[in-house]
Amino acid sequence: MNVRKITEDDWEDLVSWWDYWPEWKTPHRDMLPEGGTGGVIIEKDKTKVAACFIFTSNSKTAWLEFVISNPHYKEKDRSELIEQVITAAETICKNLGYSFVYSVGRNKSLVNKYKKLGWWVDKKPSFEMYKYLK
Question: CA dist 126 to 26, 106, 107, 108, 121, Å?
């Protein structure tokens, strides 16, 4: 298993993952930290399994978002590897001096992973909103 920074070479794979999941929309690269490379990806035996992005701020809070997984990776450790990419991002945030990590989501499986990892989860659903300022 290998956790590493997302690179330009990963972008097309990430887009194909977003395209596969019907409820996801590929975020515009300008919306992502470092133009789509500001996050971490986890691999097992050179197969990319999951990734997430880390948004930093001028507060003590970092935002962990756009957790995405390879829809074709069906091994038994899939859930564990997704949790590990989240945990790796948490560690990076802590090492950068952040006291809190924040995320928004609606996928029940992912929400349950956050709960398992000790995150507080609001009981009321939220809506993600953004506006592209051209």
Answer: 19, 8, 12, 13, 11
The per-residue pLDDT for range 61-100, each reduced to its tens digit, is 999 999 999 999 999 999 999 999 999 999 999 999 999 9
Query: How many other C-beta atoms are found inside a 10 Å radius of the C-beta of residue 54?
Result: 25
pTM passes above 0.70: yes
Mean pLDDT of 13-37: 92
Q: Which residues contact 3 (CB under 8 A, 6 or more apart)?
A: 40, 41, 42, 43, 84, 85, 88
Please report the domains of the chain, with CATH numbers, ordered by start residue: 2-116 (3.40.630.30)
Kind and range of the H or E run holding 72: none
